[in-house]
Write a structure and sequence with these properties.
This protein is α/β, with parallel strands linked by helices. The chain is built from six helices and eleven strands. The chain folds into three domains: about 60 residues, no CATH class; about 40 residues, no CATH class; about 100 residues, Zincin-like (2-Layer Sandwich).
């Protein structure tokens, strides 16, 4: 796949970034809203020029305007923010006089220290929480199917919730920690099942259903609400 190129369109009076990709697999021009950057992904077949692709995007201006306006509000990691963790909402409470640590206390994410760098400290704490929870679930599910605990790493991917390498390393987006517990559990089950079946055949899906309670419901939630996970931080 060709590396993405950058361009811009003016939508509702502001410049919006457009990531242009050309790929041999594409058979038609497609547009997708990238909620992580308030931008647009434009995918083109190799035989379509970038100029033609941008004219296509321009022709969809009304649709793009509506979709960008429909994005959930961004939630910064700052005092007073409501942040979901595994389906429960926690209020961020910052007290400068307390130690520069982050911890959970009842229904709050408590944070001390200077206001400067607060979002970064809370973000690092949430990523660590996500790593521990995803690794724990992956280890438990791997044991259930007779495999050792897999190596787990985190990334901030925009289009994939998780992946499994040919060597058996699992990668997840840390943003899964903002999803309901059942959704996180499904994504882990999906990738652990790939340790047995590197495909999406019947045996793969049967194993997914053994490893998690509501795969269909979780997939539906991700299609409906997944963009929201990119609006935190």
């Amino acid at each position: 796949m060709a590396q993405p190129r950058g361009a811009h369109l003016t939508i509702a009076g502001r410049e919006v970034a457009v990531r242009v990709r050309k790929t041999a697999r594409a058979r038609r021009m497609t547009l997708r809203i990238d909620g992580a950057i308030d931008g647009i992904d434009l995918t083109l077949p190799r035989w379509v020029s970038v100029a033609e692709g941008l004219r296509f995007a321009e022709s969809k201006r009304d649709w793009l305007t509506d979709r960008l306006a429909a994005l959930p509000a961004r939630v910064r990691f700052e005092d007073g923010a409501l942040v979901p963790l595994a389906g429960r909402e926690y209020r961020v409470r910052h007290r400068e006089a307390e130690l520069p640590l982050v911890w959970l206390e009842r229904e709050e994410i408590r944070a001390g220290g200077a206001e400067r760098g607060l979002p970064e400290r809370i973000g690092a704490w949430i990523k660590d929480l996500a790593k521990r929870e995803l690794a724990r679930r992956a280890a438990e599910k791997a044991v259930r199917i007779g495999l050792p605990a897999p190596a787990v790493r985190l990334r901030d991917t925009r289009s994939l919730w998780g992946s499994c390498s040919p060597k058996g390393r699992l990668t997840f987006t840390w943003r899964l920690v903002f999803a309901p517990e059942a959704v996180m559990d499904y994504v882990v089950a999906h990738e652990v099942a790939h340790l047995k079946h590197m495909n999406h055949g019947k045996r793969f899906w049967a194993l997914v259903d053994q490893l998690t309670a509501d795969a269909a419901g979780a997939r539906a939630w991700l299609r409906r609400e997944g963009a929201r996970l990119h609006r935190y931080g």
